[in-house]
Recover the amino acids of this structure.
């Protein structure tokens, strides 16, 4: 069983994330999309909301499971018998950052990191930009699924009221 993890903040999951998770699912037996529970950084969405959106967006693919983790990613990998981490590269600056993390994760626990190049149609896309656009009422319909778009609308409307 070749099980890999696609870790992230997923605040919220974007079409770029879904593209990577789906492509990974075609290459490996099982893909675990794992949401970081970051005690130091409060996101727009709760971990439960992020997990819910990921479940909805990946519901039609059988070999994807959604999970959450806190602490070190390599510990999560060890506990769940995961041999490799999948990370997306959108740009050279992503590579600069990811290389160091990947090498440290390998040093810590021998866990491999496999890089997938982002689909060029999503190379400019990030959750933080999606949040900013949605916050000011901009159109994010080509950047996230309709379900996530609605969750963003609900979130910002409830914050205004
Ligand atoms: O979506 P993001 O924010 O780019 O994902 C970053 C993530 C969750 C993959 C990264 O922050 C992470 O693995 N955090 C867990 C703590 C950890 O293991 N850090 C690496 C130490 S070398």
């Amino acid at each position: 069983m070749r099980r890999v993890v696609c870790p992230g903040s997923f605040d919220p999951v974007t079409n770029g994330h879904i593209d990577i998770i789906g492509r990974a699912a075609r290459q490996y037996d099982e893909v675990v999309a794992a949401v970081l529970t970051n005690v130091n950084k409060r996101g727009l969405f709760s971990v439960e909301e992020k997990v819910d959106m990921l479940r909805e967006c990946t519901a039609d693919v059988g070999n994807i499971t959604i999970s959450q983790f806190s602490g070190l990613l390599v510990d999560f990998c060890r506990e769940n018998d995961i041999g490799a981490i999948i990370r997306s590269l959108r740009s050279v600056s992503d590579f600069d950052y990811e290389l160091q993390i990947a090498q440290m994760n390998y040093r810590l626990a021998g866990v491999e990191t496999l890089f997938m190049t982002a689909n060029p149609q999503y190379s400019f896309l990030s959750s933080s930009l999606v949040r900013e656009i949605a916050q000011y009422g901009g159109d994010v319909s080509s950047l996230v699924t309709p379900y996530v778009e609605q969750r963003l609308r609900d979130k910002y409307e409830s914050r205004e009221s």
About this structure: The chain has a mean pLDDT of 96. The beta strands are 3-8, 30-36, 64-69, 84-89, 112-117.
